[in-house]
Design a protein that fits this description.
CATH architecture: Alpha-Beta Barrel
Distance between the termini: 38 Å
CATH superfamily: Glycoside hydrolase/deacetylase
Number of domains: 1
Helix content: 25-40%
CATH class: Alpha Beta
Length: 286
Amino acid sequence: MTEEQSLPYEHSSIVSRPPLTFPGGARLAVYVGLNIERFRPDLPVDPSGGPVPDPLAYGWRDYGSRVGIWRLMDVFDDLGIPVSGIINSDAARAYPEIVEAGVERQWAWVAHGQTNSTYLSGMSPDEEQEHLAQMCAVYDATLPARPTGWLGPGLTETHATPRLLADAGFTYLLDWCCDDQPFPLTVPGMQSVPYSLEVNDFVMFMRGPGLTGADYEQMALDQFEQLLADSARTGRVMALPLHTFIMGQPLRTKYLARVLRAIVGTPEVWFCTSDELAAHCAAPQG
C-alpha cells in the first residue's frame, strides 16, 4: 500500500491532546451544515442504479430546493443561526435565488461535488482532478469566493481527494466522521472538521423507518447534552447536518426549531460556521 492509499490521518486519542478552547470561553462549538443538493434527472438518483426518470425519488428531493429550504431559512432567521451551506456546484448554478439568499445572510459555503447523482468513488486521479476543476469553475462564477471546505457527495472520496483539494485551495473536509474535534490530516495544510452520521437527518429518517420529528428532537438533544458535559474537560464540536428535503418537510421543522432554540440559549456554546471553526482550530492555540 502506497502512502497515498493509506488513511489521510494518524491515530490520536482525544484524552492525549492539549485542551481545545473556543472564543469567549465557550466549551462546545456547534454548526449547522445545510445540504443543498441537485440530482440530475438524466441519471439515477442513487448512483448505484435505479429508474430514469424517477418521479418518486427526484420529486421528493426537489421539494427541498423549491419549498423546504425557505421554511428552514425562516427558522434560522428567527433564531439568528449562522449556516454552512453545503452545496453541489450544479445546485449553485441551478438555484441562483438560494445562493442570493445565502449570500445576503452571510452563509459560509462548503463544496459538495458537482451533483449528488455522481460519486467520486472509482475515479482515476486525472478524472477526479478534471471533475473538481469543473466544479470549482462553477463556484468561482456563482459564489462570492471559492469554498475552502469540502463534503463529498455521499461522503465519498478517493485516495487522491485530500491532495487534489489542497492543490485547489481547500483547507478542510468533513468526510471522516471519526472525532469530536478538528484534527490535521497528513496532507499539509488540510484538516478534518467533525461531521455527523448519528444526528444526520438523512441517515436518521432513511435508515430508521418509523422515526418521528419528536424522536429527532430527543436524539439531537441527547447528543448535545453529552457533548456539553464532555466539553467540561476539553472543547468539543457538535455538527448538525440537515437536508432541505428532510427537515424542510412541514411535519419536522418545528422539532428542529426546538433543538436549535435550546442550543442557542446555552451560554457555553459557540454557534459558528464550519469555516469559522476550521480557521479557529488551524490557528495556534493558547
